[in-house]
Specification:
The longest helix has 13 residues. This protein has an 8-stranded antiparallel sheet with strand order 6-2-3-4-17-16-15-10. It has an 8-stranded antiparallel sheet with strand order 14-11-12-13-25-24-23-18. The protein is elongated, with a radius of gyration of 25 Å. By secondary structure, it is α+β, with helices and mostly antiparallel strands.
């Protein structure tokens, strides 16, 4: 195997692999990428047995062949090469010579035959989608995914096609829930919803971030998802299980509804949470006539208080919340004002754009 490729092209391929390859693994080859040179160009594959990405790149191939190389070390090398072009040549015993300008490296590789095969997904019906819409849906749900590995079903986002060419994505960790519904027309041929795992979702977000306007296709087979855009294919295993009945958690319109300036609310929460109890980010939110009060109290540090002017004429109420859960939601809303709905001291708070519940966040109250 021998080929010459633009340094930036190889860097892009190896960057895409960084979040997928397994650093600490009982299978050392999973820390590698598979580099395959053919007459039509070079493909670089990263696969951790759950998520696989195959990246295609133009190259001058003088000798076809394949080898696997350390994803991390070769990426570090390529980032620091002096020339715009780099040549890779496989030597005896799967060693690989990497040369660029005056720099030469001889790297230990492993046989391509040992690299695990990606699942074949010819039977996944692909639907053309708007990449920027899917990217928005991921950004507005990712923060609510559970990081508790024992709650396996909640370690991903529920992807559920709706009537009229719409798709709903829902994430919850039991303390909060985020739901977004957008138009992604096309028949995904799904009987119900599927659960996309957190790691796969984050890699998908990274690929969409590269070029949100690029033509994208998404499809689902029995237990896996397939994503394609020009020069790139991604396949991932889905979480097997039944997502909770999330509709039960979302309250109907709250008894107390207040419109709050988003930026002021966000900045105030960040300030007041500085004196909240360790790691709980607990703050009290109170409503009085034309006022929203945010307070925190920490016996070791002291207390903090801020007041926002709002149009409100309901009864007085004070509820405890995790400030971080509220700031996560406010950070992804694009509107200048947000609708903040409250029930009683034991009911969740609901945040959405005024007059639009297509993106809705639910935050459970806490005892403060």
């Amino acid at each position: 195997m021998e080929f010459r490729i633009a340094t930036d092209e190889l860097k892009k391929a190896l960057y895409r692999a960084q979040g997928i390859v397994e650093r600490k693994t009982t299978m050392p080859i999973l820390a590698n990428v598979l580099v395959n040179a053919t007459k039509s160009g070079v493909t670089v594959t990263a696969f951790d047995l759950d998520i696989g990405v195959v990246s295609e790149h133009p190259a001058e191939v003088s000798k076809p062949g394949a080898v696997t190389l350390s994803a991390k070390y070769v990426f570090d090398i390529v980032q620091n090469l002096p020339d715009a072009q780099v040549t890779l040549k496989r030597l005896a015993n799967n060693y690989v010579d990497i040369s660029s300008g005056s720099a030469h490296f001889k790297i230990v590789g492993m046989a391509a035959e040992e690299y695990p095969k990606l699942p074949k997904e010819e039977n996944a019906p692909l639907v053309q989608i708007a990449g920027n819409t899917l990217l928005e849906m991921i950004k507005k749900t990712q923060f609510a995914i559970s990081s508790d590995e024992t709650r396996y079903i909640l370690n991903g986002v529920f992807f559920e096609p709706q009537a009229g060419g719409k798709v709903r994505m829902v994430a919850t960790d039991g303390h909060r829930l985020s739901l977004i519904e957008r138009e992604l027309t096309g028949d995904f041929k799904l009987k119900g919803g599927v659960i996309i795992p957190r790691k796969g979702l984050m890699e998908l977000k990274r690929l969409l971030d590269e070029a949100p306007e690029a033509e994208c296709h998404l499809g689902f087979a029995e237990n896996s998802a397939l994503f394609k855009k020009p020069g790139l294919t991604m396949v991932m295993r889905l979480i097997d299980g039944q997502f909770p009945e999330y509709q039960r958690v979302i309250p109907k319109e709250g008894e107390k509804v207040v419109m709050v300036p988003k930026t002021s609310f966000l900045e105030s929460l960040k300030r007041i949470a500085l004196l909240s109890a360790d790691k709980s980010y607990a703050v009290r939110i109170g409503l009085e006539e034309n006022k929203l009060l945010i307070t925190s109290n920490n016996p070791d540090l002291g207390e903090a208080r801020d007041v926002l002017d709002v149009a409100y004429r309901g009864g007085d109420i004070t509820i405890g919340f995790n400030a971080r859960y509220l700031t996560d939601v406010l950070s992804v809303l694009e509107t200048d004002e947000v609708s903040f709905e409250l029930g009683d001291e034991h009911s969740p708070g609901v945040i959405h754009a005024p007059g639009d519940r297509s993106f809705t966040a639910v935050v459970m109250p806490m005892r403060v």
